Amino acid sequence: MTRVLVAAHNHPALHPGGTEIFAHDLFRAYQRAGCEALFLGATNQIHRQERPGTSFQSIGSSGDEVLLWSGHFDRFFMSQIDLYGVVPDIVELLQDFRPDIVHLHHLLLLGAEFPHIVRRTLPDCRIVMTLHDYYPICHHDGLMVRTKEKELCYGASPDRCHACFKDIPLDKFVLRERHLKSLLSVVDGYVAPSAFLRQRYVEWGLPEERISLIPNGQPERPAPAQTDAPARRKPVFGYFGNLNPWKGGTVLLEAAKRLIAEGLDFEVRVHGAAPFQSEHFVESIDKLFAETAPVVQRRGAYRRDDIAGLIRSVDCMVMPSIWWENAPLVIQEAQGQNCPVITSNIGGMAEMIENGVNGLTVPPNDPTALAAAMRRIVEDPDLREILSHGARHPETIDTTALRYLALIESLRPARVAA
C-alpha cells in the first residue's frame, strides 16, 4: 500500500483557509484511493499553545492527523529557527511512517528545510509540492502587491523587493532567493492549480518542465435542484471568506453604497469574519457596514459544511479580491451550485470566470466598475439565468487525487534516472 504524508502550514480545524481545506480534502481522497495517508499540519501560538517535551500534538480522533508546533519561525527566510528542537522530531516521524510520497502544500511554519530533511532521511521518497500562492517569491505575505498604494507587482527582484521593505538590506533579498531555490531543488515535481501562478514561478526561475497544471477539485456534492432557490423579489448578492485588506470587502461595500444611493432594490449578505486584522482595518470596515445597513447584512463566520446551502440562498456571488488570487475554492463552490460570480479580472480568478459566460469580471480595486456589474445583475433577470446556465462545475477531489497519483508515479523513472 502506498504511503502518503500530506503536509500543510495549518489544519482547517484551526485555520480554515483555502490551502488548508484543499490539502485536507486531498488527504482524505488519497485514503479513498487506497493509500495509507497521514496529515501533518504546522501551527503556532496563534492557534495552539506549546506542549513541552515534543514538537507534535494530536488533533482529531482518527489517529491519522498530527500537528507540528512551530513557534520559532523566521518568516523572511521561511526557515525553522529551532532546528535542534524540530528537525529530530520530523526525522523520527519520517522514519516511523516511512512515506513513499510526501505531498507538501506550503513552506510557512513547516520551513523551507522540510523537503531537504525528507530527501536526506528518505532518499527514494518522491516529493511533490503544490504551489498555492507566492510566498517563496514575495516577502509581502506572498501577495505580490506593493506595500504602498496596493499596486500589483508584476515581477519580483531584489531591487523591487528592497523598494517595498526599505529596512531590509538589498543583499538579504538576494540571499533569500538563493536560500529558497537551493532548498526547493530537491522537490521532484510541482503542481500549480492555475496557469497564471505556474507562469509566475517559471518567471521566478523554477524549471518549467517540472511544474504541472492540475486544477483543484471539490468534494462531491448533490446536484443543485431548481427548487432550492425560491423566487425572490430582489436579487441577493453573497460574499464568502475572511475580511481583510486584500479580499476586496471594502470595494464591495463601497460599490453597495453607490447602488444604495441610486435607489436600487437589492441585498448583500457578507459571510465571513475579520480575524487577526489591524485596528485601522476593523474600524474602516465597521464604518462601511454601518453606512450600508440594512441592505448589506453582516452575517459573520460560517462553517464549511454550510457553504453549499448559503450559496444556494443567493443569486450571485461577489469575489472582488485585489491581489493575484490563484484558484479560490469559493468560486468553485459557487460554480458547483450554478451560482454566477462577479470577480476581479486578474490572476487565477480570470481563468475561472469568463465574462458574460459564467459570471462577470471587473478591474480590481474599482468600486465603480463593481457597482456597474452588480447593477447589471439587479436589472437583468435574463442575464442571471444565462450566467447560471453557463456555470462550470469543478472536478471532484477524488478525480484530483487520481491525477496527482498518476503524476507522482511518472516521477519515479525520472528519479531513478537522476
UniProtKB/TrEMBL annotation:
<dbReference type="Pfam" id="PF13439">
    <property type="entry name" value="Glyco_transf_4"/>
</dbReference>
<keyword id="KW-0808">Transferase</keyword>
<dbReference type="InterPro" id="IPR028098">
    <property type="entry name" value="Glyco_trans_4-like_N"/>
</dbReference>
<feature type="domain" description="Glycosyltransferase subfamily 4-like N-terminal">
    <location>
        <begin position="16"/>
        <end position="217"/>
    </location>
</feature>
<dbReference type="GO" id="GO:0016757">
    <property type="term" value="F:glycosyltransferase activity"/>
</dbReference>
<protein>
    <submittedName>
        <fullName>Glycosyltransferase family 4 protein</fullName>
    </submittedName>
</protein>
<dbReference type="InterPro" id="IPR050194">
    <property type="entry name" value="Glycosyltransferase_grp1"/>
</dbReference>
<dbReference type="Pfam" id="PF13692">
    <property type="entry name" value="Glyco_trans_1_4"/>
</dbReference>
